[in-house]
TrEMBL record:
Organism: Corythaeola cristata
Gene: Tln2_0
Signal peptide interval: none
Biological process according to GO: actin cytoskeleton organization; cell-cell adhesion
Keywords, in A-Z order: Cytoplasm
Major place of residence: cytoplasm
Record protein name field: TLN2 protein
Length: 244
């Protein structure tokens, strides 16, 4: 029953997404209604996904984390979409904010699709690891896009913090290699969850450190380039584990 409820609520959220996008070109009232409707739907979706995660039992916490991460991705994408809708409201069709809105809507639909694939895979133990890894690869790609954007972080951190965060990448790499060797579903799921956090933390710390007041423009560019290269290298490693 959980799967049916998740499917039904996810479909409603996709409809809300369409209303949000079309609402940007219509009245403020319609836009407000679409935003309220999507907020209600995401709350319902989070509840049914949490129920689904709980039904797996405490014997499989890593798969529970995969499900919770999937709904977190959808919620974050919805928040970004509402922000993009706000920015595009009443703007002409060729305004840059309209392209941002379309991009945000695409990410939203990608994440809902990813959630549904994850829910389906959870029922089949033989594909759980593969699906978790695919979802993590998609998540890291989205995080990399945010990292490469011109958006300046709200706070900065020290270069030492950035160095500290690279240790997580080293640990996750060792775990990924071990999972590639063992090919056990539980090892692959644990790798997916660890990789997701390690790379996201590294990218956040790298960008924050690169905008530290003491950092020159040249050093910032180098730091951002190496953050990207590290992520691309890690994605390649995960792709290899997926092939194995």
């Amino acid at each position: 029953c959980c799967r049916e409820n998740i499917l039904k609520t996810a479909k409603a959220l996709v409809e809300d997404t369409k209303l949000l996008v079309s609402g940007a070109a219509s009245s403020q009232d319609k836009l407000a209604q679409a935003a309220q409707s999507s907020a209600n739907t995401i709350t319902q979706l989070a509840e049914v996904v949490k129920l689904g995660a709980a039904s797996l039992g405490s014997d499989d916490p890593e798969t529970q984390v995969v499900l919770i991460n999937a709904i977190k991705d959808v919620a974050k994408a919805l928040s970004d979409l509402i922000g993009a809708t706000k920015g595009a409201a009443s703007k002409p069709a060729d305004d840059p904010s309209m392209y941002q809105l379309k991009g945000a809507a695409k990410v939203m639909v990608t994440n809902v699709t990813s959630l549904l694939k994850t829910v389906k895979a959870v029922e089949d133990e033989a594909t759980r690891g593969t699906r978790a890894l695919e979802a993590t690869i998609e998540y890291i790609k989205q995080e990399l896009t945010v990292f490469q954007s011109s958006h300046v972080p709200e706070k900065t951190s020290s270069p030492e913090e950035s160095i500290r965060m690279t240790k997580g990448i080293t640990m996750a790499t060792a775990k990924a290699v071990a999972a590639g060797n063992s090919c056990r579903q539980e090892d692959v799921i644990a790798t997916a969850n660890l990789s997701r956090k390690a790379v996201a933390d590294m990218l956040t710390a790298c960008k924050q450190a690169s905008y530290h007041p003491d950092v020159s423009e040249e050093v910032r560019e180098r730091a951002l380039r190496f953050g990207t290269e590290c992520t691309l290298g890690y994605l390649e490693l995960l792709e290899h584990v997926l092939l194995v």
